[in-house]
Amino acid sequence: MRVLVVGGGGREHALAWAVKRDAPDAELFAAPGNPGTAQLGTNLDIPATAVEDLAAAVRAHRIDVTLVGPEAPLAAGLADRLRAAGHAVLGPDRAAARIEWSKAFAKDLMREAGVPTARARAFTALEPALAYIAGHPEPLVVKASGLAGGKGVTVCATRAQAAAAARALLGERALGPAGEEIVIEEFLDGEELSVLALADGERALLLPAAQDHKRLGEGDTGPNTGGMGAYCPVSLATPALYDRVQREVIAPVLAALARRGTPYRGVLYAGLMIAPGGRPLVLEFNCRLGDPEAQAVLPLVPGVTRHLLEIATGGWRPDAARLEPLRAAVATVLAAPGYPERPELGAAIEIPRDLEPGTLVFHAGTARGADGTLRVAGGRVLTVTALGATVAEAAQRSRAACERIAFPGKVYRRDIGWRELARAGAEASAGTPRG
């Protein structure tokens, strides 16, 4: 089988790695890929959003299945283009991918489907938005409706902060087209959880839940980023919670999209807030695997790419409602100095060859220089995933590997998984066995 992975980040390296783990004889291509995917197959120098060039490459290289990693190619209609030409592809059509590239659309869809979420209103003009903010309880949240690369959400403690965020998006066009429409919503309190579902338009299979760490600094401080790390499993995700997420979130949304004539085929990411009492509320939907959640989840579920390939090619027969993780994983992002606003690029990277077994290094913002030296080429540089029997063991191994990987000014969090570790510590202190 000849498989093309579209994208060039850490998620795509993890996806390519999972394909080779599950199907060692598969011939792998990546577009544009990165130095990590180059170790697994052939990189094609084609941008992830170059729809026509990618379609031509699928024909030229006789690709059997295309796995689309990022959201931007899906929003650009890559899956539509490939399916129209008779090619197998994992990823929703543009109309279904709108669940991510328009937060206003997602809110309307959730209202239609009866999915629990924060109360919200969408605006395209500044003055009505400011008037709405003036009467809104504090705290509140302002979101760019379009694709903003993880930079479009501002949690505002005060109405003044919310008004400033709205002015930046609608008045100053700080995020360009992504912020031409904004969503203002109530603040939800609780603990965040990422649940990813594989879907073929009707049926769904839940992957093990993960928890992302979006803030730059330890203790969840500093600016929001694209994600500084993730871990899996999360004890908060009990069988009862999985059942609620399936019944109250995933199934209603899939049904609503199917009724609209846009069945969802691919990975549906539900970013949830678990409210006190255990009720799942949707913060956002994404139309693909998370990043860095994919780097934590994929290593824990051998055989998962069989499901991805069968959804793409047809004939998928999931034999369970959810997949169980075999072990625990902690994925820590190594970022460039100055990330997320002004990352410093170009520094040489040294990755030791003798990292502890069970440690995986996924490339994201890296590139080979003319002399072959591995260098920093993006804000999030590497994701260091370590496996262990427990989250605590995996976290220790991930930190140890991060300490040994070298480039000037590297930035990373040493507390990935801290909520889970706190829960485990509290249970141990109380003498409560973990289930």
Key attributes of the depicted protein:
alpha+beta; Rossmann fold; Dna Ligase, domain 1; D-amino Acid Aminotransferase, Chain A, domain 1; five-stranded parallel beta sheet; five-stranded antiparallel beta sheet; 14 helices; globular
Main sheet overview: 5 strands, parallel
Count of helix runs = 14
Name the CATH superfamily assignment of the largest domain.
ATP-grasp fold, B domain
Rg over CA atoms, rounded to whole Å, is 21 Å
Contiguous low-pLDDT stretches (5 residues minimum) are none
Blueprint of the fold:
Layout: E1 2-7, H1 10-22, E2 27-32, H2 35-38, E3 42-43, H3 51-60, E4 65-68, H4 71-75, H5 78-84, E5 88-90, H6 94-101, H7 103-113, E6 120-123, H8 126-134, E7 140-144, E8 153-156, H9 159-171, E9 182-186, E10 191-200, E11 204-206, E12 211-212, E13 215-217, E14 221-224, E15 229-232, H10 239-259, E16 265-274, E17 280-286, H11 293-297, H12 304-313, E18 328-335, E19 359-363, E20 366-368, E21 374-376, E22 380-388, H13 391-404, H14 418-430
Parallel strand pairs: 1-2, 1-4, 2-3, 4-5
Antiparallel strand pairs: 6-9, 7-8, 7-9, 10-11, 10-16, 12-15, 13-14, 15-18, 16-17, 18-22, 19-22, 20-21
Detailed description of the structure:
The chain has three domains: 2-94, Rossmann fold (3-Layer(aba) Sandwich), CATH 3.40.50.20; 119-186, Dna Ligase, domain 1 (2-Layer Sandwich), CATH 3.30.1490; 191-425, ATP-grasp fold, B domain (D-amino Acid Aminotransferase, Chain A, domain 1, 2-Layer Sandwich). The protein is of the alpha+beta class and 435 residues long. The chain contains 14 helices and 22 strands. The chain is 33% helix and 25% strand. The two termini are 40 Å apart. The model has no long low-confidence stretch (mean pLDDT 95). The longest helix has 21 residues, at 239-259. The strands form six sheets. A five-stranded parallel β-sheet has the order 3-2-1-4-5, sandwiched between helices. It has a five-stranded antiparallel β-sheet with strand order 12-15-18-22-19.
